[in-house]
Design goal:
The complex is a heterodimer. Chain A is mainly alpha-helical. Chain A has helices at residues 9-22, 30-50, 55-66, 69-80, 83-101, 103-132, 160-169, 204-208, 235-242; strands spanning 179-186, 193-200. Chain A has a two-stranded antiparallel ribbon with strand order 1-2. By secondary structure, chain B is of the alpha+beta class. Chain B has one domain (5-107): Winged helix-like DNA-binding domain superfamily/Winged helix DNA-binding domain (Arc Repressor Mutant, subunit A).
């Protein structure tokens, strides 16, 4: 039968704030607590005397029924504020005083902390991106880069016709794709702009399991030699050049 | 003292509020004696637990306190019920009655109702 009567959260919140304010002086003073218990004790002793007890016995009985003066005061003081917060505030004030006393030591401590925190943050961001959040692609462990080894270039690039041969004869990989970086100049949409792009084989996006926001990916035969150019653009470029669109990305 | 019942947790606040409602402003000692008398001296109240309960009620806004003079000319802190406290009393009385009614149903000889 601990809690048949529910406690309202607003009341608890109010009490919490008052106890928190108690940390900053807006509280019953220890003196007031002692005075109230004192007056209680006196009234009880008066009653006990009237009931015929000796002065000593009257006082003893009153104290017993109060459950001890010191214990009761302690319970009240704890309820008065938030004891853990009070201890915390004391510790903080003490720490600040100590640091003020020896500025040199304080500087060393602060520098050590700053360096420690900085290094930790830097390391964590590396671990976070490399280990905890690897590239957002399906099965990154199965993804490999293939190069053409030539006499002067251990990791050389490969020509498109050679790639087509590789792709045709491939027995080792589930899919092959090729890409080459290229700069483009975009004109006719206001100020001309230099863009970075890639020539890619039509197999690239299916391999990486990339889906277009709008429109379609390259069709399998669109990378045949002699076919007209088809382009897929990113959301950022579309928004910048063609204004806001439903979803945005991918256009001819 | 062994035949006296200890006060169940959570009910002390209700008793305090009810006492203040019937008696008007009263000091801690008076509240304690009144609770004992009302119970027909069957409750043993540890006075030391009353004061934290009073402080809690005051922090929750159910009661307010003020220093004054007792009947015997002792300085004492008097507590009175606030509007919030009156509402709380009504509400807790209702839930208490509900709770006891439920328990009573369990304990009463089985009857089809």
């Amino acid at each position: 039968m601990r809690r048949l009567i529910p406690h309202s959260p607003t009341r608890n919140l109010r009490a919490f704030w008052i106890r928190l304010l108690g940390l900053f002086g807006a509280r019953r003073s220890h003196h007031e607590i002692a005075a109230e218990l004192d007056s209680h004790l006196q009234m009880h002793i008066d009653d006990n005397l009237r009931a015929g007890m000796t002065q000593k016995e009257a006082r003893r009985q009153a104290l017993i029924q109060l459950g001890g003066m010191e214990q009761t005061q302690q319970t009240l003081r704890e309820r008065n504020t938030l004891p853990w917060a009070e201890t915390l505030a004391q510790d903080l004030r003490f720490a600040v005083r100590q640091l003020r006393k020896s500025p040199g030591f304080a500087a060393v401590v602060i520098t050590t902390l700053a360096l420690g925190i900085g290094v930790n943050t830097a390391l964590f961001s590396i671990v976070n991106t490399v280990l905890l959040h690897p590239i957002a692609l399906p099965r990154p462990a199965e993804l490999v880069a293939v190069d053409a080894s030539k006499p002067n270039f251990e990791r050389g690039s490969i020509s498109y016709p050679n790639f087509r041969d590789w792709q045709r004869d491939n027995r080792s990989f589930s899919a092959l794709a090729v890409f080459r970086h290229h700069g483009f100049l975009l004109t006719g949409t206001g100020e001309s702009e230099r863009l970075h792009g890639e020539y890619v084989s039509s197999s690239l996006f299916p391999l990486l399991e990339v889906k277009p926001v709008l429109g379609r990916l390259f069709a399998p035969d669109e990378d045949e030699i002699g076919r007209g150019p088809v382009v897929l653009i990113g959301q950022g470029l579309w928004a910048r050049k063609f204004g806001p669109i439903p979803g945005s990305s991918a256009a001819r | 003292m062994s035949d006296k019942t200890d006060i169940w947790q959570g009910t002390l606040a209700l008793m305090v509020l009810k006492t203040l409602e019937t008696m008007g402003p009263q000091h801690g000692y008076g509240i304690a004696r009144r609770i004992e008398q009302t119970s027909g001296d069957r409750l043993s109240l540890n006075y030391g637990t009353l004061y934290p309960a009073l402080l809690k009620l005051e922090q929750e806004g159910a009661i307010a306190s003020e220093w004054g003079m007792s009947d015997n000319n002792r300085k004492a802190k008097f507590y009175r019920l606030t509007r919030v406290g009156r509402r709380q009393l009504e509400q807790e009385t209702r839930s208490w009655e509900q709770a006891t009614a439920i328990v009573a149903r369990f304990l009463s000889p089985a009857e089809e109702t």
